[in-house]
Amino acid sequence: MFFNNLYWWCTNQSFVQRALAAKSLKEGQKGAIYCGFLKTIGFFYLVLPGVIAYHLPSIQDKLAAAGSSAIDFAYPALVSAVVPKPVMGFFAAVLFGAILSSFNSVLNSASTMFTLDLYRTAINPKASDMQCVKVGKIYGTCAGAVAICVAPFVMFAQGITTFLNSMSQFVSLPILFTVLGALIFRKAPKYAPKVITAVHVIAYGAFMIPQALLPHLG
Hints:
Blueprint: H1 2-11, H2 13-20, H3 25-40, H4 42-46, H5 48-55, H6 60-66, H7 70-82, H8 85-123, H9 129-150, H10 160-184, H11 192-217
């Protein structure tokens, strides 16, 4: 989790692109420090609700009935038990807006990386900015459609958070150590990130596939 959080909060495209879009280095540094301060209060909205749900008597029967899915069911059960009914619609609207904001950020990041790191680099190096924008829109639409189709199957994983963290590890660690390597090793060969990524994806996949199949085979 230490390395996973280093990736998410220091090198993830969704956050880095906001720093790169700052009007000056000073403004970017202010934003990074402010976000770091907000991260220190993460306990109150990431951990504390789970602790309350675990000890709240009125929802213990629901959590017990959920079984292994309680990890995803605890927060909705806590909200339904604590939030007043008249405010529930407002709360749902805020939560839905936050989900859409995160979804749009990820799609934008994916489109940016595909367009600039793959399409303009390997497929069509002479592509104009307008062509890249068009390709990015098409890729974002396709990626969103695939995500919507795959989303219902996440319920079969052992919790959505566990599933997302496991899948993100395919690319998160290579990205993290590419950035760290560029900062620490000044004379590292430029093909090193590609080798690291390929080795990590193969090794991590070889570890994850048996882990996913063994419970079903047993």
